[in-house]
Each structure stands twice: as structure tokens, then as C-alpha cells.
Batch of 4 targets.
Target 1
Amino acid sequence: MKQEKACRLKTVGFNAQEIEGFAELHQSEIQNGFLTSLGQEALRLLYSEIAENHNCIVVAGFQDGEAKPVGFIVGTVDCAALYRDFLKRNGLSALRVFLPRLLSWTRLRKAFETLLYPTKQCNPVLPGAEILNFAVRPAYRGTGLAQTLFLELMHRFAMMGVGQVKIVAGEGQRRAHKFYEKMGAKQVGWTSVHKGQNDLVFVVENKVSYQSMLIIHKPGMVKRVFDLFFSLLGLTVLLPFILLVAIWIRLTSRGPAFYRGVRVGRGGKRFRLLKFRTMVADAEQLGGPSTPDDDPRITKVGRILRRYKLDELPQLFNVLKGEMSLVGPRPEVPLEVDLYTPQERELLSVTPGITDWASIRFRNEGEILRGSPDPHLTYRETIRPEKIRLGLEYTKHHSFWVDLRIILTTLWAIAGGKPEVLGEMPGTPSVNLGPPERPDAVLGPPGIGSIE
């Protein structure tokens, strides 16, 4: 075995140069693959989708001082959903890039075989999660990097509740077969992604059980019925208003009416959080992740929606689907969750919500950040530690009465009342809802706020 080379791992927030590196490494190390034959521009487009898709996990290794990866592994919990999302979001771009390369019958046939493969069940008991691509520079083979990438991917799968992972490798990929068997994978059969090609199918049991790291608090029957009833009632009553606001947003600024951001929910499962868009299109490229009230990226309509918290209304759809609850710690972006300490990971033991203690206390978060020369630094030092503390307080003391008090207090605060005026209800903890004070220290590593 070669001498181990120290590499830093990265799982989210890939920039254009790093995505370019994925395409280059794929093309050089997966030389006989169908996707490789489509060229680097096609690969770049595909990896741009993979890096942002909530059904995918990317783990990349970087050598210090290098901007492009020395190795990466890609996994997905739903390959069919990935392809659908890719075609939906990149339809015209994909047509422009792929069409000239699919003029031959062989490539066109292979394209259809690739798209249809996820729906072909050679064995109905095979897991849905699978490893899509895995590449390591030759100089880093035998250094332990491949094993590190693989184990980190298994950890990420475990965070999403995945217990088994499927691997499909070509018959001639002997090096890959040995590696997967070394990592505990077992060959369970054969399949054929493309006509005339034999591929081995492996299944690996995920020995990393994220569920065992947390006591996952499943929502009780009363809480779920409460969520279902009021989310349905709210959507029934407010649907005309939601549609009018969506039209208002589309007419007054460029871009979609809704913002769909990836968030991490209970047990580490990812989902798409729905909000009204309150900022200009491509806001991520125009500024930092924390948003003060005087942020120029906020639209005129967005200021009104933010003032009365109306931008959160579409999350009733998330509640209806069971991804969120009316009450619970606010869901965070994957980059923030990656920085959680073991103590902070307890926030993932409950279903995230539309409102919680922190939402009430920091209802004027934008005002706190107003005028700051570095809003994100102010957020990390002033707001994040207390948000984490209040979220952990909820995980320890949540109940129907706590939820009811939070809902009533939230409505009172939105109406302009002072939350401290409302008395405590039976079984609720004592929580300070007064104006936040600047803490002396940050609890755990600095995090990142949401841009919307």
C-alpha cells in the first residue's frame, strides 16, 4: 500500500471549477462508459445537476492547494428521480449539448437504455439506493483515499436512513470488484445496463447506522393528526391567496414564484423546502447567505412578505407531506448540518417545523443584522448559538401543550404583540422570549444561514 496522502473531504457547495474537475476525472478514469463518450460538456452539465440534487450524495477528496478533486464518489437514493430532475431542469441545455452526440443509432439506443435502466427491476428485492460513479486519480490509488470516500458515502447514506446500497459494475472491472468485496459488498446477480453488456450487481449492508446515533422521536398520532388537519384547513382557506401572491411575485420580478431549497429533516433525510421567493433571481451569486432587512437583494414584494412571515405559507405543503410539522426546529441546509457537533445533531431527532422558540425570539432577525458590515459573521456570533440552544430545548421538552403555546405565541408576535405577555401553559419549559443578547461565545463550529 502506498503512503497515505492527506486529503480534505467536501460534500456540498461545489463551485464551477470543482464541477469541471469531476467531469475531467470522470472522462480520464471511466474511459469506456457511455456518459464519457458524450464528452466533457455533457458530463459537466450532468455533474452540475448531481451536485445540487437532493436525491444525490457527492463526496470528493481534495489535495491542499489544488482546486480540482483527486477522487470522488457519487451515490443516489433514487436514480429515476435524478434523471427526471435533470431533464426537467436542464431540458433545453441538455437538448443542445446531447443532441449532436446522439445522431448515431448506437449512442441513441444507449441513451434510452441509460434512462430506462432505473425502471428495470432485475430483482425486486434490490435496494433503491446505489453508487453511480466512483473515480480516483491513479497517483492516489492504494493510499486509502478510495476507502475513505466509500466509508464517508456510507455515513451520508446512513444519515438518510439507507441500510442497503446497490452497486453495478461492468464484468471487466476486476479492480472495482475486489475493492467492493473488500468493503463488504456481496455479489447478488447479473444485469445488463446496455444490450450485449454484462454487469455484476453487488449489495453492501450499511454498517453505519445513523438511526442508532440518535433517539429518533417519531411524531405522535395527536401531533400528526393536528398537522394534517390544520395544514389541509390552511391550504383550503389560503390557496386563492397563495395563488395571488405567486402571480404578484411573477409580475413584479424576474424568476420563479417559489423558492425550493434543499433542507435536512428528521433522521438526516433531505427534502425540498417550499417558500415564496423574496429575493432577486440568482441571489446566491450576488451576496452572502445571511439576509439583513436592508439587503438590496430583497424585492419590494419580498419585504412585505418577510415582514409578516407570509413567505413561509407554502411550507404547509411540506407539513401535509410529512416532511415538516407546524412546530419544530427550523430545518437547515446540508452545509450547516455537516458542521453540527454530536450535541447539535440531536436537532435531527425531531421533525423540523415552520415555527419554534427560535423563530419567535428571532422574529426580527433581519433587523438585528441590519447595518452589519458582515451580516453572516454577526449571524454566527449573535444568532446561531441561541437558535441551537432553543432548538435543543424543544427536542428535550416537546409535547402537544408546548406546540400549542408556540403556535399561539407565534400568531401573537406576528400580530405585533409581545410574546413575553403570554403566560406559560401546563408542561411547558421556561424559555426566555425577550430581546436576544449578544453571546460571549459560539456554541459549536460556525454555521451558515439560509439565503431565502
Target 2
Amino acid sequence: MVTNPTQMLNAVEARKQFSAEFEKFVLIIFTDADSFIPSIQKIAGEDWEIILFKDRFDQYWFKPMTRVFFKKKFLQQISRELKSEDTLFIGNIQHFWCCVLGGRVNAECKKFTLDDGLSMLTFYSRFIKQGNRYWSPPLAKGIRGKLEKWICGVPKLDTSKWFFFTNLELNQNDARIIRSEMRYTKGLIDSGVSVFQGVYFIEQPIVELGILNKQDYLKLMNKIALYYQNLNLEFIVVRHRSAHLQLLNEFYRVVEYDLPIEFQLSTQREFPQRLATFFSSAIYNIACLQLSEIECDTWAIAHGECDENVLIHSDLFGWFRSLKNAKLNVLKVSLE
């Protein structure tokens, strides 16, 4: 079950890695964002049995409640079809509806959570490493969260019975961690690649997350662009088009991708000499492909509470040191 294209890419990686263990693969696309569906289907390819949840509730008088009710009913039907010998992969263990399905399936089912960017690292370091066992996902804010709790209850998962499929080196001594070998992504580029002589800055939804307003965001981007002024700089925007991006477009080259950057670069077979971002596991995933020497910059925003929101995980240093051709720099930028 996936809810976005990043999860879909990791689902394909899991399918590639476990292909000999299963007779059939069923893909459940469960998303409120219709714009995600074509991207998910493009990454998935044709060799899946697909079950698609579609939001068709415009005709109902109270859409929020009706939507939650039908989502619950849809996942109840899925859970009833899962047998004890089946295996369930969910896109993100921090996603409420993924946990609803995970909490309803047969107790004998083998269960995995896929990687969904740095959320896997955040979950593992803040919850599992602290010795916690029973996990309940956070509720949405406002009436949506209240309705989900009222209609579905709050799922409670026993994480001791879950496996974590990820490219991140979370814990070599934890048998629940299954490392992704990135077979699918590596297979896309087995015929060689070209190198972009410049910097790709992987933009993040800083404004949407409420970390900065539009004016401060542009001020920050100007400072970062000044740092790279002698290099060929391109801002890479993945899957979100917002008003503040028009500010970037006026001054810099902005390239928009609908697909995860790892997939996009692998299919076009062009990788940059240098990657930069605020917080994105994509820089590590791309470095793991070991194509050529690459330098990666992670920017921390020194502004009020932003250091708490934009985390620089110390684990990344160790992981990058284990990669032969990769170098990680941690840089700071402030509004002052």
C-alpha cells in the first residue's frame, strides 16, 4: 500500500529484492492527491495487480465524514482478503491510514514498512532506539483528525513484529532492518551516465511546513545562490508547485520533477557533480549509487526554532564516510 511516488519507488525496490519469495504482487494506491496517481503508476509499470482507492465523494453533503467512513470500509475489505501466509508492505509507518491497515491484518501476516525519506530515520531514532514498542500514528489536525479517531479509533502497532525496508543503515544488529539493495534504480543506469557540471539544489517545502514565510524563504535562497555563484546552479522542485516558487523562477533556473529525483535522474542518466538540500534522504540515496565522485551539502537554517525543525542527523556523517566516492558538508545559513 503506497500513498505517494517515493513510497512507490521503494515498493518497486522491495518487489525486485523479494521477487523469488512471492507468486503475486498486489499494489494498493491509496492517496487523496489525484496528481500522484499517474506518477505512482509510471514508476510501478504494468506488471502489478492494482487496487485503486478513488475519492468520489463530491455528491455527499458532509464530505469529511463520508470520506473517512469509505476509507475505513475500503481498508476493512482489503484486510479481510489478506491471508496469514501473505506479506504486507505499507508506505510509511507514520501515516495514519497505513497504520489502520497494518493494525487490521491477520496477526500471522509478515509486515514491512517501506522507506519514505527521512521519516524512516526520524521514526527509528526517536521511537525504536528509545526502547519503545507500541506505536500509534499522529492524528491530523482539526476536524479531520477528530473524525478519523471517532470512526476508526487510534491504531496501535506492535513494532517488535514489523520489519523495516530501507536504504538507510539504521542498525546492523537489528534483525528487523532489511537493507534495500537498490537493484531497480541501479538497473536503470547500467548503461552508463553523463555528469552535469554544476549543482542541483533539491528544494523542500519550507514555506508549506510553516518554517519560513515567502519573504524569508527568498532571502535564504539568495544567500545560498550567492554561495554557489561561481557554479552552474539549478533548483530542483519535486512534486509541489506553490506560489513561492514563482519567486525562484524570477531569478534562478528551476527544474520541476513529478517523480522522485532518484528515479528521474536514473531514467535520464544524468547526475550532478554536487547535490545540495535542506533535509532530504535523496542525497544519500544518490550517493549510494556509487556512480562517480559526488559532493553533497546539507543546509541547516539558523533561525529561531528552525534548527529543531530542519534536523541534521549525525548518523548521516558515518554513512557518508562509508561511501567511497561521496563527501558530505553540513552548512548553516541564517536570515541575519
Target 3
Amino acid sequence: MKKLALFVEGQTELIFCEYLIQVLFGELNYAIQTQRASGRKKARQITTITAKENGNNGADYYFLIRDCGNDRSVISDLRDDSNSLFVQGYELALGIRDLFPDFSVDDLERFEKGLQQTLENCSIPITPIIAVVETETWFLFEYKHFKKLDPKLTPTQIRSERGIDVKKDNFEVDECSASKLASIYSLAGIDYDKSEKVVLRIMNSMSAENLANYVSKRSSSFNSLYMTLKGFIA
């Protein structure tokens, strides 16, 4: 069994990573466990949220997705738990967090180098994936989901009402992507409160084809996540 751990900064990232795994591994035998971490650094409490299995012949792939509670805990939790993950048989771990608001786009290269130095002596290989500028940036690039979410959310209407061209604009800039996303959703009366219900509704509207063929070309950070997961298939 191949085992991969994904440590993420919040519920939105957890749900999105679970969605990507289901898209890429849907025809295979796999299991996913989701967890939530809480408490201070030296007294972290881990709570299991869900445990799911796909297929009838036992899992060939096992994924652990842990919500670390905030962006700054992702890398430190991975570093602290790397030996435990190694003992449990994980061969790779991903640390997924936003660049914004702690760092700017100009800080990205320096930030990534610092993370690599922090993680170089861990017990298993750890790949930090920094969403530029936020996970919601990836949602903005996946423009096809807007109309599926609500027929009123056409590219033309969004451009007219909000001045955002979802097909052409570069969203990897030093602006809050979550605020832009919320502004677009509000045209359809959708409150982007990041609740489980709302994020699941967004995932149900996502185009897996557009993520693979378009978003992966517009966003190198999304492409890193997508290709790492895809490359995990034996």
C-alpha cells in the first residue's frame, strides 16, 4: 500500500484535496482519513473527522489529510510528525498553505528556500506547496464552475458587475482572492463563509477537466499539487 500525507491549513483545503483525490483515484482502490489538529504546539490534539474507503478489494493507496487549523502550523506540524509518519509507512508528505497574507508574491522564492532548509532533515520527503496567493486563487482560475454553481454567474455578467475577467485576469497577484471569490458569489446570493456546506457545493460545481487542462497551466502552485498527486499513481 502506498501512503501519502497531506497537511493543510484549513477546512477549505481539506475538502479540496479530498475532491482532487476522488477525481484522480476514482477508479482505483483507495482509502482517505481526514483529521483536525488543535491545541498548542507541544500538546496537539488530533481528532479523526472521517474515514472512507473506495473499492471492494482493499486499499492500494492510503491518504491522510490533516487540517492543521492555520497556515503557520502546517510546516511545523509536518516537521514535528515526520518521524511518526515514517514509522507508519508514509513515503511522502505535502504541506499545503497560502502565501497571502504573511508573504507577497515577491517573497515567494525566498520563502520556499527557507521551507526547504527547514524540512531537509525530516524522516520522510516533504514537499511544501504554497498556493499563490491563496487556495481560492485556484477556484478563480476554474472559471467554468461559476455558471454551474448558478446560471447567473456567466463570465460576461461577472465582468460587467464586478470588473473581473475570469477568463483572462491573472489572479496570482498581491490581492485577496477569497474576497474576489466572495464578491462574485454574492451576485447569486451565495455567502462565501467557508462553511463545509458552501465549500462542498463549490466542489460539486468544479470541472475536473478544466482543472487538469487549464488551471494547471495558469497556476504553477496548483500544477505542483495536481502533478504530485497524479504521479503518486503506480
Target 4
Amino acid sequence: MTNTVNTPLLSVMLVMLHDFKTLRKTINALRAQTIANQLEVAITAAREFADTIDTSLLSGFAKYHIVVTDRIATGAQGWVLAFPHTTAPYVAMGEDHSFPVPKWAETIVRAHEEGWQWSARLLKTPTPPHGLVGQIFFYVLSIGSSRIKVRW
């Protein structure tokens, strides 16, 4: 299913591994974006949950796509299936536990328009980087851009 209103500036790919209620808070955070009407949302959903999607929550976006598949093994698989449906010049991978602040999308688009190859408005993590995964995550963030702020 596809719906088109405007030309999007930023595509956000989401994966619905369970019922739509798992994505509702993320969708509401995207609806609160200052450029929500210039966002494209591409949701990959397992067939068994596709009919739980509340498309009325998607109507304010420039475009939305619902990609239905028989089975989704991982979030990465869902993003791979969603990507061909994106049409905006910039693409973000969203998650069901990530709720971007209202100026997030606008800031991402502006940064890329200014020539940045990688950008993040603000990253928050509940704890300092402990263990190998946390240290790798922090290292990747550190080399990505001098404009990155990390808060604990």
C-alpha cells in the first residue's frame, strides 16, 4: 500500500515485528516532527500483523508505504525490504524504541544539505559505554562527525 501527498525530504524506514502498537509511539514522535509533512515512512510488516496498522496515523506524512512480507527474521531484513520503496534523498532507519525529538528530521536534512555525510542531532544513551559493544558504538560515533554530542 502506498499513499502520496508531497515530495519527501527524508525517508524513515520502520520494521513492525509485532502488532502496530509497538510502533505507535515512534509514529507519534515522527508526526511531531517540524517537517512531518515532508517525511516519507516505509513500514515493513509481517503479513500476520499488517492489518493492525492504523493508516490514519500515517496520513500527515508526505508519503507512506506498507511493505508486507510473509516473515521478518530481523530488523535489518525489514529495512532491506523497505529501502526500495523510499524516494527521499536521505534515508533513516527508525526503531520501535526510538522516539526522535521534534527537530530531529529537520536537523538531519539541514546537515546533509550543508554537505555532511553523516549526522545526528543528539544521541542519548542511559549508561557510559561499557563492554565491547558500547565501546564500538562510542568509537563509531566519535569518528563520524565533530558535531556529535553524546550524553550519559
